[in-house]
Amino acid sequence: MSSVLSTIKQAPGSPGDQPDVPTERPARRTRKRGVTRWVVLAVAVVFALFMLAPLLLLVLNAFKSGADYSAHGPLSLPERLSTEAFQQYLSLVNYPRALLNSVVISGLVAVLGTALALVTSYGIGIGRIRGRTWILAVFLLATMLPQESLIYPLFYGAQATGTFNTIWSVVIVFTVLQAAFGTYLLSSVMSTIPQSLLEAAALDGAGRFRILWSVVFPVLRPTLSVLVVFFFVWTWNEFYIPLVLLTDQSAQTVPIALATLQGQNSINLTALNAGSLLSLLPTLVFFLIFQRTLSRGVTVGAVK
Asked: Any idea what the Cα angle at residue 20 is, between residues 17 and 24, rounded to 5°?
C-alpha cells in the first residue's frame, strides 16, 4: 500500500511536480512601464524648457546693465545682477498708475462681463426665446470680428458719450465683447440643466430671478469662475482698442505704457525687458492664485 501511494505522489501529473508559474513576464512589463514613464517625463521636461525659454531670456536680460547687454549680447549670463533697467523703466513710465488702470479695467470687465453673460444666457438657454440659434450666431460672429473693423464706431461712440480718454470707454466695450462670448458658452451649458430641477423650483414658488440665483447660479459657479479668470487675462492683454481710446497717459494701461516707451524714447532693450517682466508678473500672480479655481471649473462636469 505504501509503495502504491509513493508511486502516485511521484506521478508526472501530480500537483506537487508542476513547475512554478513564471514571473518573468510581469517583471518585464514593470520594467517597460518604468522606462516609458521616464521617457515621457524627459520629453515633458524638454518641452517645458522650450516653452520657458522666452521667459528665462526675458528675466536674464532684465537684470543686465546696458553696458553688459551691449558687450555680451542677449544670450550671455549677466556679469552681476543689476536693477538699472528697472530704474530706467520706472523713471520713463508711470507704472503704478498704469498698473492701477489695468487692474481696475480688467477686474470690472471680468465681473461685469460674466454677470451680463449669465443674465443674457439665462434667457436664451432656459427661456427658449424665438430665434435662439440666430441670436447665438450673432454673438459668435461678434467674437470673430477683427477689432480694426470696430474701431471707427467705437471711437466716435466714445466721443459722443463723453467717455473718450476714460477707463469707462474700454470697460464698456470689452464688457460687451466678452459677454458675447460668455453668452454663447453659457447658453449651451444652461440647455443641459434638467427641466425637472427648474420645474421643482417653480412649484415651490420661486420666480425667474430666484431660480437664476438659487438654482442656476450654484450649478454654473465653476464655469463662471473660469470665465472670470479668462476675461481678466484677455482684457489685460488687449492693446489695439485701448491704444485708440486711451490717449491720455493718466488713463493708459500697462501694455500701452510699455508700447509708448518704444515710440517716445530711444529703444533701451534692457529697460524694455524690465518693463515686459513687470507687465507679465501681475497676470502670472493672478493665474497662480486662481489656478485651483480654474482647474476645478474645467474638470467639473455633471449637474449635482
From this structure: 160
pLDDT tens by residue, 93-141? 899 999 999 999 999 999 999 999 999 988 887 766 777 788 888 888 8
- Homologous superfamily of domain range 93-265: MetI-like (1.10.3720.10)
Could you give the CA distance from residue 165 to residue 252 in angstroms, rounded to a whole number? 9
The pLDDT score that the predictor gives to residue 115 is: 95
Cell 465681473, residue?
A: 111
Rg for the chain, CA atoms, rounded: 31
Question: How many CB atoms are closer than 10 A to CB 86?
Answer: 19
Q: CA end-to-end span of the chain, whole Å?
A: 73
Q: Give me 294's grid cell.
A: 480654474
**Residue 217: which of 135, 113, 115 has the closest Cα?**
115
Amino acid letter, 90? L
pTM tops 0.85:
no
The ranges assigned to domains in the chain are 24-72, 93-265
| 291 CB burial (10 A radius; 0-12, 13-18, 19+) | exposed
Beta strand extents in 131-237 (DSSP E only):
none
The dihedrals phi and psi of 302, each to the nearest 5 degrees, come to -80, 155
